[in-house]
Amino acid sequence: MPTPKDVNIYHQKVLIRSFRDADQRAAKDLIILGLAEHFDCIDPALNPDIDNITTHYLQKGDVFIVAELDDRLVATLGLVYINNYQAKIVRMSVLKGYRRQGIARSLLEYCINLALDLPLQQLMVSTEHSWTAAINLYREYGFATFDRDPIDVHMRLNLHEFNSTR
User: Fold this and answer.
1) Rounded CA gap, 58 and 163, in Å?
2) Beta-carbon count within 10 A of 52 CB
3) How large is the greatest C-alpha to C-alpha distance in the chain, in angstroms?
4) Are strands 122-128 and 86-94 parallel, antiparallel or unpaired?
5) Is the dihedral of CA 161, 126, 63, 29 positive or negative?
6) Which pLDDT tens digits describe the chain residue by residue (166 residues)?
7) Which alpha helices (H) appear in the chain, and where do they start and end?
8) Is 68 left (phi over 0), alpha (psi -120 to 50) or beta?
9) Nearest-5° Cα angle at 160, 130 to 106
């Protein structure tokens, strides 16, 4: 289980910690709100994982972390293990009123540091072509595009390369 970490962002203390069962409703609502900003219609059948985050992520050995500010859940990030050497970042979402404050950056750094402490060699992420802020953030941290399809840009970070530039 990841260790909680307090991060000072714009003189505000943001707590990055593991997801708890009590976070379920707030985390699901936050993710759905983020999706609703980009899609006209949200199909629940495409998002069954957020109906029970504990079952879908934690009980399978994956990681799901949240960022909390003033006792309010403001961001989420999941890390799904693909195999012993690769994991994929999923469900990275920051509540609209809290964006551009460094919260996504802090979550990503936390996730990368967690991956560096594990035997992982590669982190992967997929995001929509139109989500340029997310793509730019991942690029800042060394993620490179390795594939594109009609919907998503697929990126990866080779952790041994990231670690050597740290």
Assistant:
1) 26
2) 14
3) 43
4) parallel
5) positive
6) 566 565 655 557 889 999 999 999 999 999 998 888 877 777 767 889 999 999 999 999 999 999 999 899 999 999 999 999 999 999 999 999 899 889 999 999 999 999 999 889 999 999 999 889 999 999 999 999 999 999 899 999 999 887 655 5
7) 24-38, 53-56, 103-116, 132-140, 159-165
8) beta
9) 50
Q: Tell me the domain boundaries of the chain.
A: 5-165
Residue 43 CB partners (closer than 8 Å, separation 6+): none
Strand-pair partners of 65? 18, 77
What pTM value is reported for the model? 0.89
Given the candidates 3.90.1570.10, 3.40.630.30, 1.10.10.60, 3.20.20.70, the CATH classification of the domain at 5-165 is 3.40.630.30
One-letter identity of residue 95: L
Q: DSSP for 116-163?
A: HTTT--EEEEEEETT-HHHHHHHHHTT-EEEEE-SSEEEEEEEHHHHH
What whole-number distance in Å separates Cα of residue 139 and Cα of residue 142?
5
Both ends of the chain: CA-CA distance in Å? Answer: 24
